[in-house]
Amino acid sequence: MNAPPDEQIDNFYSAVGRRVKVARTSANMTQLELSKQTGLTRSSIANLEAGRQRVQIHVLALIAGCLSIDPSDLIADTFAVSRQGLPSPVNDDLERYSTTARSFVEAGLRTSRISESKESA
């Protein structure tokens, strides 16, 4: 499977950053306060929110915890994931779960495909 274009990956991180910013401001938290709680620098938070800095999944989970939200809320629907090509049992099982849970699994599947493509390149 081909890796998504760089623009699509950039758009993914921009969308994640926007969601972090919305969640942070909804929690009435400044970038500095979030940086102190996560151990990241304030400039890292700013860069992440602007989509200029990619974030590792464990850091995203830490940020979500500090903001009292589910990590999947930060990545849900950031990729327009096509279910074509998913094994039928996986696709059928996804229908039983909430939209947020489905989006989280689909984003994880998409991310694993990106990693597989890079490894085979």
Automatic annotation (TrEMBL):
Name under which the protein is recorded: HTH cro/C1-type domain-containing protein
Molecular function GO labels: DNA binding
Pfam families the record matches: HTH_3 (PF01381)
Domain HTH cro/C1-type: 20-74
Organism: Pseudonocardia hydrocarbonoxydans
Transmembrane segments: none
SMART domains in alphabetical order: HTH_XRE (SM00530)
